[in-house]
Amino acid sequence: GMKKKNANVIVIGLDNSGKSTILNKLKPEESKRHDIVPTIGFNVEKFMTKALSFTAFDMSGQGRYRNLWEHYYRECHGIIFVLDSSDKIRMSVAKDELNMLLNHADIVSRRLPILFFANKMDLRDALSSVKCSNMLEVEKIRDKPWHICASNAHTGEGLEEGVNWLTDQLK
Ligand code: GDP
Fold first, then answer.
1. Does any ligand 1 atom lie closer than 6 A to the CB of residue 122?
2. 42: domain CATH number?
3. For residue 155, which atom of ligand 1 is closest to its CA?
4. How would you classify the pairing of strands 146-151 and 52-57?
5. Which pLDDT score, from 0 to 100, does residue 42 have?
6. CA separation (Å) from 147 to 62, 82, 132?
């Protein structure tokens, strides 16, 4: 029969939000053995599971590489946006990056599902997922399905719930 095409998911967020840790938890065992080689000055991580193909990169501090990672927008079918829920100071930076993403020409008119991980939920001063979504004004997203999950990338808590939601959206 026909091989089902993998859906491309981009995993983005500020540096230190927990993207690598989340990906490591989601990665199939065999691909954990391969070291990820940094590409042209900015880090891109890629791996595939049965249903999804993940590509991750940092959005922050590397403005001059912006056009290099933005070219992944066109081919993506879904987005995972990772937040450090304990980093209140940079929540507004994350909000700016989210708005830039949502207004990008290759994203703006498409009905792409967006999964938010309010990561580091285990930290004492972590904001709740509701508080995070308020600070990012996620409710204003009307043309794309979205979902927010509190997560702990160390234990894996919240990750499966989130990825299951995204996988359902991509069917
Ligand atoms: P990236 O830059 O977005 O890829 O972030 P990393 O995955 O490298 O994580 C940045 C730091 O946050 C590391 O020290 C991680 O161990 C830590 N970290 C990631 N996820 C969590 C989490 O859920 N809880 C806590 N307490 N620390 C986390």
1. yes
2. 3.40.50.300
3. 23
4. unpaired
5. 61
6. 27, 12, 12
Domain contains 157: yes
Is residue 62 annotated as part of the catalytic site, yes or no?
yes
- Reported ipTM exceeds the 0.90 cut: yes
CA-43 nearest atom, ligand 1: 4
By residue range, what is the domain housing residue 52? 7-169
Q: Which helix (H) or strand (E) holds 56?
A: strand 52-57
As for how many domains the chain has, the answer is 1
Q: What is the pLDDT of residues 20-69, one digit of tens each?
A: 899 889 887 766 655 555 445 566 777 777 788 888 877 655 566 777 77
Q: Which residues, listed in sequence order, are joined to residue 146 by a DSSP beta bridge? A: 114
Does 1 fall in a domain?
no
Please identify which of the residues 27, 62, 72, 131 carries the catalytic annotation.
Answer: 62
Nearest protein CA to atom 25 of ligand 1, as residue:
120
